[in-house]
């Protein structure tokens, strides 16, 4: 733990701005919040980052680097109440859930952190001036209230998804829908209307916009999340104006409070050395020298990267179809198969597959150093489930995508990539699959082969996609550089965090008053 923020009995004399970050314990939520922690600390804000023993052990190298570099980040480990919530011991992250059944128990366990968190924060010196909580941690509202500190909500998904699901809930539109796939006009969007996918003509179905909130049993959490977002003092989003301006503008109007778009957060640390980038989020399972040596030997833009994030679980049949499609495409590839997707049938099949593909592939069984792979010049395409972090990582590195959404915000992210940014090919799935979904094959090997050839080939459309991807990469980088929209928003966020209502110190009470 860093010595910079001490407990009360060990008090310091200075009172720097101090923010508490409370992520949801899922890699896709922890990783961007860690980037945000480093970014804010780098701009002079003291950060307390809430974690648990298992989650902290995954990011041990990052914690060590933070300490080495003297960044003022304090990692506060709270024991995770597995037993009390009926979870297996050590099940401290969504990706460790053994089945669908204890899904809601996980939310119960997180809620139980309210009391210990409040106690530990009460003792901190300097006292926190602000809290930023993941949207799925609505219980933090009471903690912030009882500590009398301001609270901002952090939205990890795209603004397109946050906006559409929010206005549909606000206008009670979901309640009247009988056909989940009926396309409904999204209120409040404006655009030039030259295209049938923008502005007042933008339509989306309940199935593609409602995410987890509509799953049975989620009603209570959904209402809590909505309420905690409404009572928050402001909103922080991991996105940037050039990627989805229409939604950002509409969202700002409808929430009527400060909204800071500060992304893509993955670009923070893009110049770190390779070993630091490899440690992002978890310990990578591969032989780093072998993998990056192989990538170095490949032609620019020739390798396809295939990964479906941390929660999607491909079943045996679907896994084999993906492999056959990749084999038939003739394209060199890196394919990530998670531990939970391994089974005797998959292992047996992979034996022959890996032998046949040994010269043109790398199969990573476990955690892959994704951000580092995507930033390599040999990588020219990404088959992705369109998780928002993966999408932003593709965008930030100018890598065109084959989009294969599964659930949550992923269908709307696909829309952004394919229709708005025009840097992707949709594989063609329409039906959301919850991550413990059925053993269905939704995409055949022929579809995989067709999409891969289309993306990685030399046709006119493929070239245009590459150009578009490079353009949007330039905009993402510019946004995070001094003078860029996200950079300036981070400056204003820091000003906001600096303001201490108890002391009336410098800083901005609200952007709205600036
Ligand atoms: N990730 C990684 N290695 C893996 C799998 C995932 O580094 O083997 C990272 C990926 O780069 C991204 C995050 O985990 O930053 C996944 O977030 P995303 O929003 O894309 O998807 P989710 O897992 O939440 O569905």
Low-confidence stretches: 1-13
Give the C-level CATH assignment of the largest domain.
Answer: Alpha Beta
What small molecules are bound in this structure? uridine-5'-diphosphate
Number of helices: 21
Strand order in space, largest sheet: 4-3-2-6-7-10-11
The N- to C-terminal Cα distance equals 36 Å
Give the fraction of residues assigned to helices.
40-55%
**What is the CATH architecture term of the largest domain?**
3-Layer(aba) Sandwich
Number of strands: 17
Q: Main β-sheet, in a few words? A: 7 strands, parallel
CATH fold-level assignment of the largest domain: Rossmann fold
Task: Present the secondary structure layout.
Layout (H helix, E strand, L loop, with lengths): L5 E2 L10 E5 L4 H16 L3 E6 L1 H6 L1 H9 L4 E5 L4 H4 L17 H9 L2 H9 L1 E2 L4 E5 L5 H8 L2 E6 L3 H12 L12 E3 L17 E3 H4 L9 H13 L2 E4 L3 H15 L2 E4 L12 H5 L9 H10 L5 E5 L8 H14 L3 E5 L6 H13 L4 E5 L4 H5 L4 E6 L3 H10 L3 E3 L6 H11 L3 E3 L18 H12 L3 H21 L4 H14 L16
Parallel strand pairs: 2-3, 2-6, 3-4, 6-7, 7-10, 10-11, 12-13, 12-15, 13-14, 15-16, 16-17
Antiparallel strand pairs: 1-5, 8-9
Helix pairs in contact: 6-7, 8-11, 14-15, 14-19, 17-20
The chain binds uridine-5'-diphosphate.
Structure, briefly:
The chain is α/β, with parallel strands linked by helices and 514 residues long.
Describe the structure.
By secondary structure, the protein is of the alpha/beta class. The N terminus is likely disordered. Helix 17 links the parallel strand 15 and strand 16. The radius of gyration is 22 Å and the shape is globular. Strands 4-3-2-6-7-10-11 form a 7-stranded parallel β-sheet, sandwiched between helices. Strands 14-13-12-15-16-17 form a 6-stranded parallel β-sheet, with helices on both faces. It has 2 domains: 254 residues, Rossmann fold (3-Layer(aba) Sandwich), CATH 3.40.50.2000; 203 residues, Glycogen Phosphorylase B (Rossmann fold). It contains 21 helices and 17 strands. Uridine-5'-diphosphate (UDP) binds next to helix 1, helix 16 and helix 17. The site of uridine-5'-diphosphate has 19 residues, from helix 1, helix 16 and helix 17.
